[in-house]
Specification:
Blueprint lengths: L2 H20 L4 H14 L14 H17 L4 H12 L4 H18 L2 H18 L5 H15 L7 H10 L3 H27 L7 H4 L14 H24 L3 H16 L4 H6 L2 H20 L1 H13 L3 H18 L2 H18 L6 H14 L8 H12 L6 H56 L2 H8 L1
């Protein structure tokens, strides 16, 4: 590799990153132009460019976007949002909690951008009906979408990228991340209720207005809904089993999309238009930019420096990745950050003495997904909600959002740090608990056997 190509790859990558963060031009255009320059400069030969693209991630995103594009036409997501608000009986704090948990749950199985696109318009309608400021609800939904998306393989783009690069499956994410995600969601909602308690008080008459909504009227096509839910259920089952069937997650998603288009006989133009093609091409550009750094040896150099800083200790490396990911993802989009970190962690595993990289992958997932809550530009869902709000005359300012969300993000990372420490030492803790339990049981057995050998007459004899 020529020296000028190494410097050129770094300069192109940094320049592209600056353009993405500054938002002077669309991030897809920035990534695509950067990738084009990489290939034109010969850093990545054109005949090898396709090999640097993670097609499993691309296929999974396209498949799920098609499925969501068909399902959203049924109105089921609007139905769920209104039902959640009515179940709260119009109490604003309970509505905030209900919408946050619905958003988190839906985001775990759909991408979080799609979730907020569906939930936020209904939220504005509910807030308008109750004469409430929609800001608390929007903040809660932004945070919940990123928290809920952290729990599964398909919930957030960073997880899709990590799963594709590591062969970690759907159940791996649920088993290892869902417990801490549930805890973080509960704590976050509790803190949001404390923050907004004074702003969300209304009279009983205003609360009762929520029942003027007809949730059933939101369901536009029951026939399509039934087919969509059956196919969606099959796709989720496919994700649960794909590791054991040795099928890529991309195959599950694209097969589900094909089946849904077949059984619903939907005009493919509408669901294909629902695919966020700018996001897809943004990913393609990023893969090529990061691939260039990997090819010229920059990733390997960064891996060596990271290992030296942490002395190749797994826990130290994990905590570094967790906090670095969280703080970085708060200010830059977490997708390009994760795209850069994946080959770096792989190289750390190759060069260092870290045999089990799973600890590092879970740290990266938690840091990147949860860190995106820190600012309004930290994740795609945040930017989408801000855009929807602005179109409706509500400005979500950078500082205003950050005052509430950044401390909550730090709380979630502190909880994640504690969870990952426990995760790392779990075998030792279990061994100690088993040993202690065995010792206590043995002591009780010896104590009982000793008492059983003492006869009543011996007791009387001892008293004399």
């Amino acid at each position: 590799m020529l020296h000028y190509q190494i410097y050129l790859a770094v300069v192109i990558f940094i320049a592209t990153y600056i353009l993405i963060v500054s938002e002077r031009i669309h991030r897809t255009v920035a990534a695509f132009v950067g990738a084009a320059i990489i290939i034109l400069a010969g850093i990545i030969p054109s005949d090898k460019a396709a090999g640097f693209i993670d097609w499993n991630t691309i296929g999974l995103l396209v498949g799920m976007m098609i499925i969501v594009g068909v399902t959203r036409e049924t109105g089921i997501f609007e139905f769920l949002a209104i039902r959640a608000a009515q179940a709260a009986k119009g109490h604003p704090l309970a509505i905030l909690s209900s919408l946050a948990f619905v958003t988190a749950f839906v985001s775990a199985f759909l991408d979080n951008v799609t979730t907020v696109l569906l939930i936020v318009p209904v939220t504005f309608a509910i807030a308008r009906k109750l004469d409430l400021n929609p800001m608390p609800f929007l903040v809660a939904e932004i945070i919940a979408s990123n928290v809920g998306g952290t729990a599964t393989l398909i919930g957030d783009p960073p997880n899709i990228m990590i799963g594709s690069a590591t062969r970690l499956g759907f159940m791996d994410f649920i088993v290892n991340l869902a417990p801490v995600v549930i805890l973080i969601q509960i704590v976050t909602v509790f803190l949001l209720e404390l923050i907004y308690r004074k702003d969300l008080y209304i009279s009983l008459d205003r609360r009762n207005r929520i029942f003027e909504f007809d949730a059933r009227a939101e369901i536009k096509d029951y026939h399509l809904l039934r087919k969509s839910l059956i196919v969606l259920g099959l796709v989720i089952a496919g994700f649960l089993l794909h590791q054991y069937l040795h099928i890529e997650s991309m195959v599950v998603a694209l097969s589900g999309a094909a089946l849904l288009l077949l059984v619903t006989r939907t005009d493919p133009e509408r669901p294909l238009n629902a695919v966020e093609w700018p996001v897809i091409f943004f990913f393609i550009g990023l893969f090529l930019l990061v691939g260039a750094l990997e090819r010229v040896g920059v990733i390997s150099l960064l891996a060596r420096l990271s290992l030296e800083a942490t002395h190749s200790a797994t826990i130290m490396s994990g905590m570094l990745i967790l906090w670095l990911s969280a703080l970085s993802s708060a200010f830059i989009d977490n997708i390009p950050f994760v795209a850069t970190m994946i080959p770096l962690i792989k190289e750390m595993g190759r060069l260092g003495h870290i045999q089990n990289l799973n600890f590092l992958w879970w740290c990266l997932s938690l840091g990147a997904c949860l860190g995106g809550n820190g600012t309004i530009i930290g994740a795609s869902a945040n930017v989408v909600v801000a855009g929807i709000a602005e179109k409706r005359g509500l400005l979500i300012s950078f500082i205003g959002y950050m005052k509430v969300a950044f401390p909550l993000m730090l709380v979630s990372i502190v909880i994640s740090s504690g969870y990952m420490f426990l995760w790392a030492f779990l075998p030792t803790i279990l061994a100690a608990a088993i040993t202690l339990s065995a010792a206590i049981i043995l002591y009780l057995i010896l104590l009982l056997s000793r008492r059983s050998t003492i006869e009543p007459g011996d007791k009387d004899a001892d008293t004399h």
